Amino acid sequence: MIHFHRYTWLYTLISALVIGAGLVSIFTYGYRFSIDFTGGSTLIYKVKNTLAKSEIEKSITTRKIKIVNVDVQQKTIHIQTSAITDAQEKEIQTDIKKMSKGDVQVLRYETVGPTLGKETGQKTIVAAVIAIAGILIYMSFSFKGFNYALAAVLAMVHDFLVVLGSYSLLSRFFGAEFDLMFVTALLTTMSFSVHDTIVIFDKIREYIGGSKNTSAIASLADKAVTETMIRSLNNSLTIIFMMVSLLLMGGATIRFFIATLLIGTITGTYSSPFIATPILILLEKRKNK
Description:
The structure is a single chain. By secondary structure, the chain is of the alpha+beta class. The protein folds into two domains: 4-34 and 116-287, Up-down Bundle (Multidrug efflux transporter AcrB transmembrane fold); 40-112, Alpha-Beta Plaits (2-Layer Sandwich). The protein has nine helices and six strands; from the N terminus they run αβαβαββαβααβααα. Strands 3-4-2-5 form a four-stranded antiparallel beta sheet. It has a two-stranded parallel sheet with strand order 1-6. A hairpin with a 2-residue loop joins strand 3 and strand 4 (76-81). Helix 7 packs parallel to helix 9 (255-287).
């Protein structure tokens, strides 16, 4: 049996550094929000010959269209503007076709109004709150104790902050957009985090039983984590290998979605034994004093 709880200080330090870096990034750089939240138009084209960013911006500006962002990655052009009509999109496409001297393939063309974007943001917050409340209620009844639910939710908040902070860094340095696919990945991460925690907590509850010996709670929790560690790692590695394959071989449209799921899977696997369990041990010891 490995005495995992003895290294709680190390887990706390690692989490503080990761979350701290993420929070600095959030408050310093923020996010690059997609039209799902801000409203506007997104155009993604694949061209025959690579174009300069300045050429594209000049072409769009001459048509009196407000540019939010233009990103050129080899032969893929990502353009974000204020809301435009179908006719204006055709004009932009024609200009790019002339400049690239070849065919233009439309990978994405989408327009969202600002009102719908605001509504999407509100629904995202509501969905997250409902998810947290549901987990608290379910685990409180299932484990017949609020401490299990509170520890699981705090670990989930830990994962939430890690993913949010990491995505801010991806947004800053790799151009990732805060869109609905990211929200989907974030909620999936929350679900995965709790799923892994429940497995460990169920084994801890089985060993602890009705014991009121506070010193035994830590050792029994370590025993439970030791016995479930291989199962958790095998389950997570299966998902991680699949995510890495999709990240390397998948298309550009799902790249950051997969990256978010990968980060969430790793932090979810880490937080269940090293964040949720130490919190549960602390809460149970305080309850039994």
